[in-house]
Each structure stands twice: as structure tokens, then as C-alpha cells.
Design brief:
There is one protein chain. By secondary structure, the chain is mainly alpha-helical. Helix content is 72%, strand content 0%. It is built from 3 helices and no strands. Helix 1 (25-87) runs antiparallel to helix 2 (91-113). The longest helix is centred in the middle third of the chain and has 63 residues, at 25-87. The radius of gyration is 34 Å and the shape is rod-shaped. It starts with 24 loop residues before the first helix and ends with a helix. The model has no long low-confidence stretch (mean pLDDT 82).
Length: 132
């Protein structure tokens, strides 16, 4: 009498699907279809990676342009403040120039820290509040 076939605990095991039989027409079609699907998946993944890389480059360029513009604004405000101080202009002009420089400097610092820019109301409140 032959030995009994023992089953492993846990029930029936799932087996990987058998590779298509390339000796038959149907098997070759299945193999071609699966190869085409794999190729299409790889192509799509490559396109997705390229899109992601382009997005990252575009965002980096936008950040760099924003940083340059904020620094230009800050430098212009600093030059105006120096000119006002050098001329010995009125207190109102001096206060206005200092407020513009502080606002520009705050914008640069907020950008470096990754914070969103201040709204118009927040800027008005920040310039109205005295700093020490």
C-alpha cells in the first residue's frame, strides 16, 4: 500500500501561476501580452519619474527666483534707508524707510524659514507695532 500524502497545516497552499507554454499559439499570445504589459508599466513608471524630477526642478527654480526677488527688494529698501539717513530727512520719511526695510527683511527671513508670506493686514499690523 502506498504511503499517504501528508498535507501541510493551514490548508491549501497558493501556487504561483505556471509560465505560459511557448510551444502553443495561445501560450505565445499570453507571453506576448504579459511582456507588453510589463513594458507599458515600465514606460509609465519612467514617465512618472521624469514628471516628478521636472516638478522638483521647477519648484527649486521658483524658490530661487523668489529668494532673488526678495533679496533685491531688501537691498533696495536698505539703500533707500541709507539715503534717507545720509540726507538727514524728516522723521516721517526715516520711519517709513525703516518700516519698508524691516518688512523686506521679514519677508526674506520668512522665506528662508519656509513660512508663508505675510498678508497685507499682517504686514500693516507688524509695521504699526513698535519693535524693540
Amino acid at each position: 500500500m502506498p504511503a499517504r500524502k501528508r498535507r501541510k497545516p493551514g490548508g491549501v497552499e497558493e501556487q504561483a501561476p505556471a509560465p505560459p507554454d511557448l510551444s502553443t499559439r495561445g501560450g505565445r499570445k499570453v507571453a506576448q501580452k504579459s511582456a507588453a504589459e510589463i513594458f507599458a508599466e515600465r514606460q509609465q513608471a519612467a514617465k512618472d519619474e521624469q514628471r516628478e524630477a521636472a516638478r522638483v526642478r521647477r519648484e527649486a527654480q521658483e524658490r530661487e527666483n523668489r529668494r532673488r526677488e526678495l533679496n533685491r527688494t531688501k537691498d533696495a529698501a536698505a539703500a533707500r534707508l541709507k539715503e534717507v539717513r545720509r540726507r538727514g530727512a524728516s522723521g516721517e520719511a526715516r520711519t517709513e524707510a525703516e518700516a519698508a526695510y524691516r518688512a523686506a527683511l521679514d519677508a526674506v527671513i520668512r522665506d528662508e524659514q519656509g513660512l508663508p508670506p505675510l498678508s497685507e493686514e499682517e504686514q500693516a499690523a507688524a509695521t504699526a507695532a513698535p519693535r524693540e
